[in-house]
Specification:
By secondary structure, the protein is mostly helical. It is 73% helix and 0% strand.
């Protein structure tokens, strides 16, 4: 077993880095303005409520189980090895597609920064290559050093956002519309529009469960991992709602302001320019670049640990299960996944595929692979919610009957999110790619009897060992 050494804040840092709050707040609001108008903050408030219900399942299960495979182990230990493999395979797709898309958006933000300096652009494939090579190296170093870097990067971005919020609030919002609290009212917006928009907001929290993959490396994981999960959702939930409120009133809630919001290439940078100074807008764009870098760093870390866990249980070459004796990092998995990410980004850059209609090749690539990864993640989330019921029924955890409403509602919300991702999809849509990935995982789990037998036996050994370790620490 890997030596436990990470503290609570270091596990929290991985989840924050994977979500990339600065990245999300720089570009996730524009896409829903056209659907709900000024009610963007309301949509994010509803998204916060929804993701909190999903987080409940992870919190309850990680109070009992901790494993590098995250949902792979949580589902496998409660529902069974076949379902566990499907959850793990879905998560592997999630983190793998995330490491591709975050490298692409890193390139997009680098070019936005160069544009702010009136400099030329760099092909996003080149920027993505540099990003992935550097992050692969960092991920073969000590995990605590990576966590410190993640916390520092997102700390700068969050501090910049807080300063901007204070200034916008102090100014009273846009001169034309002021401090408009009606943004939290659903009046004038259809239920269908709100539900469609909540889909996009909900996915802004994708990756909050990333710290669960560090269960084997964290001090007192049955206490600290649930706390890190709760903290990551609470911190980003409050932050996202407040920042989206500040951005909406900052641009203005009239037609002109909403058009400026929707058309902004980097909302934090534009508002920083308008409310403080050009240098502050540049600083916020820099933090967006760093947030994309940090999110990529976390994606590589999470993907490599999950690949290591699957290979350790017999899925994939044994070399992928090897852990560096000095830094306790899955070095081979890190480099192989990073190489795949580099290849995909270079192909995307050179061919111009996928074309999502944004006019920016890097943003097109980011959007396509982010949706693929997010839909894969929803299937893993759904299995975790079901796992709470299975664990309670088997007496593996203790849940009050009234509390089961929470994962039940969470499961329904996930199904709604999946529905809104596929109902209008056609052709080679990212949602269909994600579903195909999950179906392949299901086929493997169903047909590879030997694999699922090994997974079941391996999970039992590893979780028993974790139980013994926990008992020794408690004693």
């Amino acid at each position: 077993m890997t030596k436990r050494k990470l503290k609570l804040w270091e596990a929290l840092a991985l989840s924050l880095g994977l979500m990339g709050p600065t990245l999300a707040m720089s570009g996730n609001g524009q896409g829903i303005v056209g659907t709900v108008g000024k009610s963007v903050p309301l949509v994010f408030l509803l998204g916060f409520i929804g993701v909190s219900m999903v987080a409940y399942g992870f919190i309850k299960l990680t109070q009992r189980y901790n494993h590098a495979g995250s949902a792979y182990a949580l589902v496998g230990a409660t529902i069974g090895p076949r379902a566990g493999f499907v959850a793990g395979f879905a998560l592997l797709g999630t983190y793998s597609f995330f490491l591709i898309c975050t490298a692409a958006v890193f390139g997009a933000f680098v070019n936005a920064l160069l544009g702010h300096w009136s400099a030329g652009a760099i092909g996003f494939g080149i920027s993505a290559l540099v990003c992935l090579v550097v992050n692969a190296y960092l991920n073969t170093r000590d995990t605590s050093q990576i966590s410190r870097l993640l916390l520092a990067v997102e700390g700068i971005g969050i501090a910049g956002m807080l300063i901007l919020i204070v200034v916008i609030f102090g100014h009273g919002g846009a001169d034309s519309t002021g401090f408009d609290l009606s943004v939290f009212s659903p009046k004038g917006v259809s239920v269908n529009s709100v539900l469609a928009a909540v889909v996009a907001a909900f996915l802004s929290w994708a990756g909050f469960e990333g710290c669960a993959s560090l269960g084997e490396e964290t001090d007192d994981p049955r206490r600290n991992i649930p706390r890190a999960l709760f903290g990551s959702v609470l911190i980003t939930g409050v932050l996202f709602v407040v920042v989206m409120f500040a951005q909406t009133i900052g641009f203005g809630t009239d037609a002109e302001g909403l058009a400026a919001f929707q058309g902004s290439g980097n909302t934090l940078g534009d508002l920083g320019d308008n409310y403080i100074a050009g240098w502050f807008g540049t600083l916020l764009i820099v933090t967006a670049v760093l947030s994309a870098f940090a999110s990529n760093l976390s994606s590589v870390a999470a993907a490599a640990r999950l690949m290591m866990a699957l290979a350790r249980d017999g899925f994939g070459p044994k070399m992928l299960s090897e852990v560096d004796a000095v830094h306790h990092a899955p070095r081979n998995a890190v480099w192989i996944l990073s190489a795949v990410g580099i290849l995909v980004n270079l192909v995307s850059w050179l061919t111009g595929w996928p074309d999502m209609g944004t006019g920016d090749a890097a943003i097109d690539s980011y959007f396509f692979f982010a949706v693929v990864g997010s839909v894969c993640l929803l299937f893993a989330y759904l299995l975790v919610e079901i796992a709470v019921f299975a664990a309670d029924r088997r007496g593996l955890i203790s849940v009050r009957p009234a509390e089961l409403i929470v994962p039940g509602v969470g499961a329904v919300l996930i199904l709604i999110v999946i529905f809104y991702n596929v109902k209008d999809a056609s052709g080679f849509a990212p949602a269909y790619v994600a579903i195909a990935w999950v179906v392949v995982g299901g086929i493997i789990a169903t047909t590879a009897q030997g694999l699922t037998t090994r997974i079941g036996a391996s999970l039992a050994r590893e979780l028993d060992a974790a139980d013994e370790g926990h008992s020794e620490l408690a004693g």
